[in-house]
Amino acid sequence: MWIAQLLEHGLIRASFVPPAPIRELRDLTRYRRALIEERTREANRLHKVLEDAGIKLASVASDVLGVSGRAILAALIEGTTDPMVLAELARGVLRKKLPALRHALMGRFREHHAFLVTQILAHLDYLDELIATVSGQVEVAIAPFADELARLDTIPGINQRTAEAVIAEIGVDMTVFPSARHLASWAGLCPGNNESAGKHRPAHARKGNRWLRSALTEAALAGAVRSKKGALAARYRRVMPHRGHKKAVVAVAHAILVTAYHLLARQVTYTDPGADYYERRHADRVRQRAVQTLERQGYRVSLEPAA
């Protein structure tokens, strides 16, 4: 139904249905995404079981499923509960936190917890293997689009996995979208419109492709929120003070999608326009509006730089 509405309003063209290679790639990337989300949920279950047992390993170790964490969990499953003995299994930088680690391992780990942790770890290992297998198949499916993948990979925040997801969702032929704005509207990454009686009120972004939106949101967080340089980071800092963190992230995701559109359409790589790009563009808009206002009042305007 929603595709028919988009066609009716000219937001996409009738030839939007992607070719078979893109559809197959989309199936693979979405399946991998679902597996990754399931792995995240399973890891959260592990944290919950450890919390129930009074084991605060996550408060000390940055990765409970790392080398040290897996060694400690294996010892717990085998019946070792002495915090001194468990802490000695730590490796690398975690050994610098031995006092805090000993305190975190003073819990009440029982046979019940051992059973649950055993099953969870087995499921995590299975998911890791399955994710690796699907990723290998994705590499085979994405091979014909290696040039497009390399172009998208030049955008800040976009890594290979995100670029694969973007290509799988929008394809590589941008002629199916009349403009970058139409693509953003289809993806649900453009502002909503809530106007009544001439008054504009805050509106949520419209619904769209949740797979694409999720991938671009992660890219926005990596490329702007966690970065201090470049136009995307400047975009986030410009929007965040008066719109808030979430809307600023969506604004950056929108900018990334528009950038991806132009890179694929023009077959070029990304060149950062600089941290002052949005300030320069805003100044140009202010000057243009001022000239248009005077022209509407009957003036002939000629601009010259001040001395």
Give the helices and strands, then pairings.
Blueprint: H1 2-8, H2 20-52, H3 67-78, H4 83-87, H5 98-104, H6 111-142, H7 146-152, H8 160-170, H9 180-187, E1 195-196, E2 199-200, H10 210-225, H11 230-243, H12 245-266, H13 277-296
Antiparallel strand pairs: 1-2
Question: Quick recap of the structure?
Answer:
The chain is mainly α. It has helices at residues 2-8, 20-52, 67-78, 83-87, 98-104, 111-142, 146-152, 160-170, 180-187, 210-225, 230-243, 245-266, 277-296; strands at 195-196, 199-200.
Helix and strand composition category: mainly alpha
Termini Cα gap: 59 Å
Number of helices: 13
What's the helix-strand series? HHHHHHHHHEEHHHH
**Helix percentage:** 55-70%
Taking the sheet with the most strands, its summary is:
2 strands, antiparallel
Strand element count? 2
User: How many separate structural domains?
Assistant: 2
Q: What is the residue-averaged pLDDT? A: 85
- Proportion of residues in extended strands: under 5%
Within the largest sheet, what's the order of strands? 1-2
Oligomer description: single chain
Query: Roughly how many Å is the radius of gyration?
Result: 26 Å
* Shape, per Cα inertia axes: elongated
| Unreliable parts | none
